[in-house]
Design goal:
With 494 residues, this protein is an alpha/beta fold. The protein is 37% helix and 13% strand. It is globular.
Length: 494
């Protein structure tokens, strides 16, 4: 079934319709809840839905509008939240048995800012356990499915958020991105996924995976939606010492101001090993940018191929430290095994029962690279390469304003189709270095791969220097306009 872009849940259009009285916040919310009831059993995008709390918030929005009271820029808009961002309502499980019943006593900063802006929290979305994965198959509550083809993965680790947006189960969703976990599922589900620069959005209340890499960002139907959510969330926070004390540009109001001239860099390293449909999508994007008057510049990013190995030293090292707090004593799952008599046995048994295999693998890897005799050979060397990767991007941006390439080398693969962990890790070959360098990136829908007889989305990625979100979003919006309206969304979005 074909449906137009706005009717598929465009956040800004919905917000305007609620403000103009064309619909009510409660009516809009009930439409989303009805679709969740119908579609979530087959997609498994949501772990928990806040129907009662959301209806109360929507009714309050309608009352405020009826009384002529001022409302926020997101008033009445239902937004889903990845289940590693803490909320006072519901649970925060990180899709892990070890946090199965955890309830947070506080809201994350991004939740405070969105609800202050009038957004309505509709529920928590499934994810790869502790954000460790690229397919949403490691979720303790079962695999999430791609709305375009339920036999395929939605990408990860923010796969539940991506699937929920693509299937029109919410107007937008929050995700987290440590090595591509917003952008890669956005590409595989045919939506927009935006990762701001490290330090641009507070991580207070985000359950840590890799603390020097993690960043919260939006998954949306359009660049316009992403810009508005970004503007509502970004800015300094006293609760997060890594948050940059920089003013936030009013990018949502200047989004249509396309730069008169800009340069698009094409790394030669991004043009090998991709599916033909992915290369075709990048080539179409090049033509779109040429039609806008952009200068196309060939650049070199020779450390692209070492990004994965660098990432899988740094991220597990930070993860093994961050996840040490889940010991079965202070909070989290505690084993009931009678054999756990000694304290060490209690720790070991609780963690063995609570953590899935991928999380255990990364904890062991992180412990190994930080251990005596291996720290210098692995972790210290990875940090040195990280600096080289950042310098490589700095040199590239002397020649161009944004970097264009694929988001993922392929479209979505079948559930259970990649059993080799190393093959799974390579799904993020074009996204991990963005996090390693701390720069910003956005994935945009760019067509489909129909080679397998299925219609599966592919995405392109634009990257810009750290704290150049305004420029990146303007250029992404210009591409979106040049591309024209998307033909349709999955039948699940009807």
């Amino acid at each position: 079934m074909s449906i137009n872009h706005a009717s598929a849940g465009d956040l800004v259009s919905l917000r305007d319709d609620i403000r103009d009285g064309k619909t009510s916040a409660l009516a809009a919310l009930d439409g989303y809840l009805a679709r969740i009831d119908k579609q979530n059993p087959r997609l498994n995008a949501f772990h928990e839905v806040f129907a009662d709390e959301a209806r109360t918030a929507a009714a309050a929005t309608d009352q405020a509008l009826a009384a002529g009271n001022p409302v926020g820029p997101l008033a009445g808009v239902p937004i889903a939240v990845k289940d590693n961002i803490v909320t006072r309502i519901g649970r925060t499980t990180c899709s892990s048995r070890i946090l199965e019943n955890y309830r947070s006593p506080f809201d994350a900063t991004v939740i405070d800012r969105l609800t202050t802006a009038g957004a309505i929290l509709i529920g928590k979305t499934n994810m790869d356990e502790f954000a460790m994965g690229s397919s949403c198959e490691t979720c303790a509550w079962g695999a999430v499915r791609n709305p375009w083809d339920t036999s395929a993965v939605p990408g990860g680790s923010s796969g539940g958020s991506a699937a929920a947006v693509a299937a029109n189960l919410c107007a937008a969703a929050l995700g987290s991105d440590t090595g591509g976990s917003i952008r890669q599922p956005a590409a595989l589900c045919g939506i927009v996924g935006f990762k701001p620069s490290f330090g641009r959005i507070s991580r207070y209340g985000l359950v840590a995976f890799g603390s020097s890499l993690d960043q919260i960002g939006p998954l949306t139907h359009s660049v316009r939606d992403a810009a508005l959510l970004y503007q509502c969330m970004a800015g300094d926070d006293v609760h997060d010492s890594t948050c940059a004390p920089r003013p936030v540009e009013a990018v949502a109001t200047t989004l249509e101001e396309t730069p008169r001239s800009f340069r698009v860099g094409l790394p030669v390293q991004y043009r090998k090993g991709n599916a033909p449909a992915v290369d075709a999508a990048v080539n179409r994007a090049i033509e779109h940018f040429k039609s806008m008057g952009a200068e196309i510049v060939e650049i070199e990013l020779p450390l692209t191929d070492v990004g994965i190995s660098t990432y899988y030293v740094i991220a597990p090292a930070e993860a093994c430290s961050n996840l040490a707090r889940f010991d079965g004593i202070r909070y989290g799952h505690r084993t009931k095994a009678k054999s756990a008599v000694e304290l060490f046995d209690l720790y070991a048994q609780s963690r063995a029962e609570g953590f899935g295999s991928e999380v255990q693998r990364r904890i062991m890897l992180g412990t190994y690279v930080l251990s005596a005799g291996y720290y210098d050979a692995y972790y210290r060397r990875a940090l040195q390469i990280r600096r080289l990767i950042k310098q490589e991007f700095d040199r590239a941006f002397e020649k161009c304003d944004v970097i264009l390439g694929p988001t993922s080398p392929t479209a979505a693969f079948s559930i259970g189709g990649l059993t080799d962990p190393l093959a799974m890790y390579m799904c993020d070959v074009y996204t991990v270095n963005t996090n390693i360098a701390g720069i910003c990136g956005i994935s945009l829908p760019a067509g489909f791969d129909e080679s397998s007889g299925r219609q599966l989305p592919v995405g392109i990625q634009l990257q810009a220097q750290a704290f150049e979100e305004s420029l990146l979003l303007k250029i992404a919006r210009a591409y979106e306009r040049a591309q024209g309206p998307r033909a349709h969304l999955p039948t699940t979005a009807a």
